Automatic annotation (TrEMBL):
InterPro entries: Cilia_flagella_integrity, Leu-rich_rpt, LRR_dom_sf
Keyword Cell wall biogenesis/degradation attached: no
Full protein name: Leucine-rich repeat-containing protein 46
GO annotation, biological process: cell differentiation; spermatogenesis
Lineage, uppermost ranks: Eukaryota, Metazoa, Chordata, Craniata, Vertebrata
């Protein structure tokens, strides 16, 4: 069984990652194959697992998409070990501030909708972001919020499921189509393996 946290949540373990993301024959020797197979994963789903803390991701060197929505996570942390990450869902958690994302230089898609973010630290958002969803957080009600975010992120094309219209050109649309081919997650609606919506468009429905 996954290790329990003091808050009666679940800790991320290699066993949990394997259970949700890999399939082995019953007679397969997991201890011999686990490390190499985890290292080959590109998309990891750990949504709806009652996870309270992000950790133990060091074996996921090649992932580009990580689903952690609908858990009990309070802090964004311990992601520097997966610098290749480009797609991150932390929607529907208990996160209060944006932090520890600057170690992800390739991050393009970030969903933090449905959290507890009151004040947004713009300097903590990677400049590489193309799509950002913060709907359902109090910070979105601040005066000038949208203008400040788009000014801070020069590559941003979509904020809170609304396009940054002045930045869209025909070339951008072609690039977006290419992104959907590379990232099936972008074709939407996005559903977790457990059947609950992970995204609808660029955020939770």
């Amino acid at each position: 069984k996954p290790a329990q946290s003091p808050e009666e949540g679940v800790c991320i373990t290699e066993t949990l990652i394997t259970k949700r993301n890999l399939t082995f024959p019953e007679d397969e020797d997991l201890s011999e194959r686990m490390f190499h197979t985890l290292a080959d994963l590109q998309t990891v789903r750990l949504d709806q697992e009652r996870i309270t803390t992000i950790r133990n991701l060091e074996g996921l060197q090649n992932i580009h998409s990580l689903y952690l929505q609908e858990n009990k996570i309070q802090r964004i942390e311990n992601l520097a070990c997966i610098p290749s990450l480009r797609f991150l869902s932390l929607a529907g958690n208990r996160i209060r501030q944006v932090e520890n994302l600057l170690a992800l230089p390739h991050l393009q898609f970030l969903d933090l909708s449905g959290n507890l973010i009151d004040s947004l630290m713009l300097g903590e958002l990677p400049q590489s972001l193309l799509i950002l969803n913060l709907t359902g957080n109090k910070c979105t009600t601040r005066k000038g919020y949208r203008e400040m975010v788009t000014a801070a992120l020069p590559l941003l094309l979509d904020l809170d499921r609304q396009p940054v219209a002045e930045r869209w050109t025909s070339e951008d649309e072609d690039q977006a189509s290419g992104d959907e081919d590379e990232f099936p997650e972008l074709s939407g609606p996005f559903c977790s393996e457990r059947g609950a919506p992970a995204f609808q468009g660029c955020g939770l429905p």
